[in-house]
Write a structure and sequence with these properties.
about 400 residues, 21 helices, globular
């Protein structure tokens, strides 16, 4: 009766109400009901919606995980059991079932870890959420780091750091203590020996078909993916990785041996990078629109270039067409800023970061051109040697 009244007030059908809010219903049942009560409630939901519970879970899979993990700091055992239930019904999970050990749970949660972090970001950044909700999210992030362990936390350390930096801005009540505890857990969950593996790429190649180019490109895209501070950038990096893996037929396992017999490109990546790439071999990211944006010229100083991030993204989109004018616009403004001793901090940051990007690109292109011509000269010399080999010198009589 109460559900019918609520549905009427919200101008929704009961079925629609139950389906739209099932992630909250499931999380509440897991945390507060006995096994018998939960089974009874889920049977009711299944009857009212005429949809099997497994299908309801799959309809909003990531958000159901998010809602459960939001409460892991206050209801650890119940949430662990709820997640084990999800793992049991997950056909794509090929690990231990039923899950009873933390290390097995960490393996199950790993593919969705970045999704959890993005969810916690939204909890912390949304001004409409009360402080208690934000403290709950930060406390649960601490519990998740404890559960996932060094291996998985080290792989996404840049994203975790970005989330923890958001929390620093809250100084109300006992928030600083919770934040300090989370930072302490984060530091102790890093594998220092793996941090040394992040070496800068050289970017010198004769062709984009070079396997070294493909390897370094994927490495840079993975770094962008891990360091992304908002979901839009993460999605862009994911799409780029998905397309790159397809172009270079970089696959794992048996498929790697079929498409690329040596499997050399895939095998060059570390285990942590492979774990990030595996889901993107089967993802279906597509461009939301093929419509071209009309860019002003220069972008720098326009609405599409009001921040460094917007300027860099939009410039990259039309770089091939307008590179000369864009560079000159940036350098001219740098010169004006220096002469007028511009004191506006935001504009100065935009000015300096944009100029730094321009000079970095020019330096990279200069070094690449030099490297290219050196290798080209060496190649020509090697090709010319066999032509003279074995020939006798003819002397004039």
């Amino acid at each position: 009766m109460l559900l019918k009244v609520l549905a009427k007030q919200m101008r929704m059908q009961k079925q629609e109400l139950l389906m739209n809010h099932f992630k909250y219903i499931f999380s509440y049942l897991v945390r507060h009901c006995s096994k018998e009560e939960m089974e009874k409630a889920l049977t009711y939901v299944q009857t009212e919606t005429n949809i099997e519970i497994g299908s309801l879970l799959r309809c909003d899979y990531q958000r159901i995980h998010n809602e459960l993990l939001l409460h892991i700091s206050t209801h650890y055992e119940q949430v662990f059991s709820g997640l084990a239930m999800l793992a049991w019904k997950d056909e794509s999970y090929d690990g231990t079932k039923p899950i009873t050990k933390p290390e097995d749970m960490a393996k199950f949660l790993q593919p969705r870890l970045l999704g959890f972090l993005a969810f916690f970001d939204s909890q912390l950044l949304n001004a409409n959420f009360p402080l208690e909700e934000k403290k709950l999210a930060l406390g649960s992030l601490n519990s998740i780091m404890e559960l996932m362990g060094p291996k998985h936390i080290t792989a996404v350390r840049m994203k975790v750091m970005a989330t923890l930096k958001i929390a620093i801005h809250f100084t109300e009540e006992d928030f600083p203590q919770i934040c300090t505890q989370a930072w302490n857990t984060f530091v102790h969950k890093l594998e220092m020996r793996r941090l040394s593996e992040n070496q800068k790429s050289s970017f010198f190649y004769l062709s984009v078909e070079d396997e070294n180019f493909a390897y370094d490109l994927v490495q840079e895209l993975v770094r962008s993916f891990l360091a992304a501070e908002d979901t839009r950038i993460q999605d862009c990096a994911s799409y780029a990785l998905q397309e790159t893996l397809q172009i270079y037929t970089c696959q794992s396992g048996e498929l790697s041996q079929i498409v690329r017999p040596s499997g050399s490109l895939w095998n060059r990546f570390s285990e942590e990078v492979q774990e990030i790439l595996v889901p993107l071999q089967h993802s279906r990211y597509i461009m939301s629109s093929n419509k071209r944006t009309s860019f002003p010229c220069p972008i720098y100083g326009s609405k599409l270039g009001s921040t460094f991030k917007d300027w860099a993204c939009n410039w990259a989109s039309c770089l091939l067409q307008k590179i000369y004018r864009e560079i000159m616009a940036v350098l001219s403004h740098v010169d004006q800023a220096e002469q007028s001793k511009l004191k506006f901090h935001e504009k100065t940051d935009l000015c300096h970061l944009s100029a730094q990007t321009v000079f970095s690109i020019l330096d990279c292109l200069t070094v690449w051109c030099h490297q290219y011509f050196v290798m080209l000269r060496s190649s020509n010399q090697n090709n010319s040697k066999p032509a003279n080999k074995g020939k006798e010198t003819v002397h004039s009589p």
